[in-house]
Structure to design on (636 residues):
């Protein structure tokens, strides 16, 4: 799915590039410098609607950068394509006193393709202005204007998108003809806009903000997108590359998407016959869908297409069938088209993909999506199909598109639905190990770990399962949490299912697993799953605690020691119960073996800020238990 680049700020006066000192750092209030790497002196954005198919954006941005952590703000990247153009872009750098250090010429602006490494076709381009300086603090000033040949998305506004950023003055303005008044939605914005009429008779809605200090996001807090001050805007009536539409409701938005997809479901007769052969003899809808899905995976590959309206419109199904490639829109449309041949009702669906993606604003119909999938109603269930992966298990959508709202395109328009969620009990890591310890503290270990549900994605495990030996070995080296070891052998097994799992078997030599002191030999029985996270202590927690990922870990480690070595004292079992989860560990003797067992369950959920000290104590207790020592004595 193509996204118009997000752009921040606005309008530069004629004197902006004069020789007089400007923006001295001394003019910044001391309160704004506190805990700030950058201060936005001016951060202004004006979006002007000329017609239902024409708009423009003016940005003026002045940023003082105090240290190396803020140097990214010395570079401005502005995107454009065949439906938009940059009519001006200027950039100046100033020293701490406000004297000009650098004024970029047109020849010093980089103009390059927005190549992302996987787009086959793209008309996206970038202009880049770089004003990085070697001495801090310094100030950069950017001005640019973009003209759009469409009105589909209106750039939104974020007051403080990141920590350690302060704002001296900022504004966001929408200018429009009365008949094309856009809709807007505020989040965490108390200030009311000023509504006025411009000299040429258009309306203006403008927000202004002054002297906003830097913010700090609390650990394990709500998504940052929920906490910051934002203004979202969207058109009512619009036109995009000749396609007219409205988006006052999701049904209207869905109707417009349907108009882009209309007639693009035609398949060659040969492919239709292939589809019918695939489902012949299959009894259930799920069996039929699985057969077609896996055929689609074997026949196609994902390639991004970014050309004009093609950022939103899929290739015809026949083109995908012939070439064997397509982007998320084209492949999802292809899948829906093949299912239609088999007599199975399926829907093209839009979604905001990515782990930690911002939640969909269901009450604000607008273009909020970056991905397309296929959805198949199946009784009380829905089969969600990720069509861009050649290896994805059938019916599994994981952290990429799971547990969020999606927009299904229907005959009547559209419907907002929730995708699959994966509760704690499904996201398991079950580990079993036999560790053979010698008198010197070295050891051999045979370890088998089964990762299921969302833990199938641990450290990109799902991406490495079908990879080459060397990359798998590197994964083992990087993810095995043992201080010093050598790999004797390893094995990966992939178990594809709607709740997938993967088994990783290791044969390791462990160097100095135990420390030796006289007749005593000491080791930490929690072999490779010790909790290292202890929440930061806060004076007064303000936001709720959010655990976005629930899971269950089970470990059983069997320690084999020579006959002359025996445990001095077995540690006491530990049991911790909290609203945040549960923890148990215990030690038993079994025919000369010391068997260590551990279970940790983390509950997904949102918890009151007032419970934060309990949250800290929960993780401290786990850390103490996980680092308990086991002491052996040597009889000789």
């Amino acid at each position: 799915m193509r996204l118009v680049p997000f752009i921040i700020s606005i309008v530069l006066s004629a004197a902006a590039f004069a020789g007089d000192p400007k923006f001295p750092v001394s003019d910044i209030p001391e309160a704004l410098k506190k805990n700030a790497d950058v201060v936005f002196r001016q951060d202004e954005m004006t979006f002007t609607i000329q017609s239902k198919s024409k708009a423009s954006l003016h940005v003026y941005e002045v940023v003082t950068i105090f240290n190396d952590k803020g140097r990214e703000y010395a570079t401005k990247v502005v995107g454009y394509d065949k439906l938009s153009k940059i009519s001006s872009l200027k950039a100046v750098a100033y020293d701490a006193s406000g004297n000009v250090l650098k004024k970029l010429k047109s020849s010093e602006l980089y103009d390059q393709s927005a190549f992302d490494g996987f787009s086959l076709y793209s008309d996206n381009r970038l202009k880049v202005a770089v004003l990085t300086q070697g001495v801090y603090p310094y100030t950069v000033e950017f001005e640019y204007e973009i003209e759009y040949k469409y009105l589909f998305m209106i750039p939104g506004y974020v007051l403080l998108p990141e920590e350690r950023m302060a704002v001296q003055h900022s504004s966001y303005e929408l200018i429009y003809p009365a008949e094309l008044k856009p809709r807007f939605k505020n989040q965490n914005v108390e200030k009311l806009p000023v509504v006025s009429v411009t000299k040429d008779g258009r309306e203006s809605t403008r927000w202004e903000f002054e002297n906003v200090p830097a913010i700090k996001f609390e650990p394990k807090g709500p998504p940052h997108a929920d906490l910051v001050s934002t203004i979202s805007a969207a058109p009512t009536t619009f036109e995009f590359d000749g396609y007219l539409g409205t988006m006052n409701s999701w049904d209207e938005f869905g109707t417009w998407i349907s108009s882009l997809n209309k007639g693009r479901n035609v398949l060659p007769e040969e492919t239709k016959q292939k589809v019918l052969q695939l489902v012949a003899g299959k009894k259930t809808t799920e069996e039929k869908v699985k057969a077609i899905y896996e055929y689609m995976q074997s026949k196609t590959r994902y390639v991004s297409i970014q050309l004009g309206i093609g950022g939103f419109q899929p290739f015809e199904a026949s083109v995908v069938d012939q070439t064997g490639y397509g982007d998320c829109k084209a492949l999802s449309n292809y899948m829906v088209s093949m299912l239609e041949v088999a007599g199975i009702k399926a829907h093209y669906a839009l979604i905001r993909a990515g782990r930690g993606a911002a939640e969909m604003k269901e009450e604000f119909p607008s273009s909020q999506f970056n991905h397309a999938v296929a959805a198949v109603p199946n009784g009380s269930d829905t089969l969600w199909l990720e069509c861009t992966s050649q290896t994805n298990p059938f019916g599994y959508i994981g952290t990429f598109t799971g547990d969020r709202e999606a927009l299904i395109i229907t005959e009547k328009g559209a419907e907002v639905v929730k995708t699959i969620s994966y509760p704690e009990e499904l996201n398991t890591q079950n580990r079993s190990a036999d560790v053979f310890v010698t008198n010197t503290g070295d050891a051999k270990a045979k370890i088998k770990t089964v990762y299921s549900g969302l833990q199938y994605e641990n450290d990109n495990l799902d991406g490495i399962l079908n990879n080459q030996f060397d990359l798998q070995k590197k994964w083992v080296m990087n993810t095995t949490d043992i201080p010093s070891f050598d790999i004797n052998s390893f094995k990966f097994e992939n178990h594809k299912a709607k709740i997938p799992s993967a088994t990783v078997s290791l044969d390791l030599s462990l160097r100095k697993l135990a420390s030796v002191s006289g007749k005593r030999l000491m080791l930490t029985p929690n072999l490779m799953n010790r909790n290292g996270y202890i929440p930061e202590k806060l004076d007064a927690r303000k936001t709720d605690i959010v655990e976005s990922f629930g899971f269950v870990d089970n470990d059983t480690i069997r320690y084999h020691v020579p006959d002359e070595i025996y445990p001095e004292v077995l540690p006491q079992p530990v049991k911790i119960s909290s609203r945040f989860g549960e923890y148990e560990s215990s030690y038993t003797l079994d025919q000369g073996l010391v068997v260590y067992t551990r279970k940790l369950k983390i509950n997904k959920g949102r918890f009151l800020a007032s419970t934060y000290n309990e949250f800290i104590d929960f993780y401290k207790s786990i850390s103490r238990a996980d680092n308990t020592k086991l002491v052996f004595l040597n009889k000789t």
Residues 1-18, 116-120 have pLDDT under 50 and may be disordered.
